Amino acid sequence: MERRRFVAVAAAAGLGVAAGAGAIGWGADGPKRVPLNIDIQPSWLTWVTSVTACLRALGIDCDNVDVAGQSGYAFHMCVTSAVDVYGPTFLPWEELAAGVRRLGRSTLEYQMGDSTAKDDWPPGEAMRFDIAKREIDAGRPCVLWGIEMPEFAAVVGYEGDEYIYRWAGDRGKEERMQFGKSSDPGGPYLLAFPSTTQMPKDDANSGAVRNALEFLHRRPYGPDHRFGPEGYAVWMTALRGGKVTAFGNSYCAQCFADAKRMAELFVGRLAKRNPAAEGPLSDAMVAYQACADAMKKVADVFPFPPKGNEPVTDEKQIGAACDGLRAAEAAETRAVKALETALEAMWAKAK
User: Fold this and answer.
1) What pLDDT shows up at residue 260?
2) Is 347 helix (H, G, I), strand (E, B) or coil?
């Protein structure tokens, strides 16, 4: 993934990826790192890659598919009337943590929110850094929103007033950032995993399906965007209406194509371990396979990074993309119906 250019391109495109407030120094005593292997599995969904890396380091047997499926991220799609770059991360992050608990770790979350008071930001950033330091001192990695770009990373250490982190870009190599220089639109966010927890497997499985449907049926927060299958029509309308610029469009195409493939794989795993709902879950898997294949075609039409951020006007590209989006919409609609049937079957078994 060539996302090192994200900040430069986003800044040139006027996407509001500004750095945070100035830092407050703590003095340098040498780097402090967690004594664990932090292995980043590549994906466009950087919350998923970061959480997976942390959970694996903490002894949880999981991969990106498990984390994306249990958290619901695999079923997230937010499309605005301009197909903006923030669509892939525009969701209630606090709801994702339930999937982490289903996988076997407790969660501790810090969110300040998108405060309009400028005076809130420096202490908010400082508090987040302090919590991260405590986790590192305890030998546990944690997840940070907003490195030098609006992406998630796994915090693996600190030195002085700098985070030491790994993320899905740059082959997961170790990088550093002064804590007050975070690019975190929406406010400072940190997710930690302080202890182990256990959930009955049947409850975890049905909870994952119920959670997926919550993401797929999410009510919009405003008039210009839609979640789940409702987003396809918005996307096609935006493309045909000349309202889409290259950067956000290409970024959304890559992220959502990745998510649909994870949805396919996760539902397939659910089908194998839930005999009572194997039929409808298998139907949902087949539907998501078609959805992911169609979205892969859209991502191929709009590779990332684009050459610039001009409006998308090529009629051939638009036509091919709309064909893919239409096929994906039909497939995901079938998948939703199958998941609803599966959940009823899982609940019936539990009675």
Assistant:
1) 98
2) helix
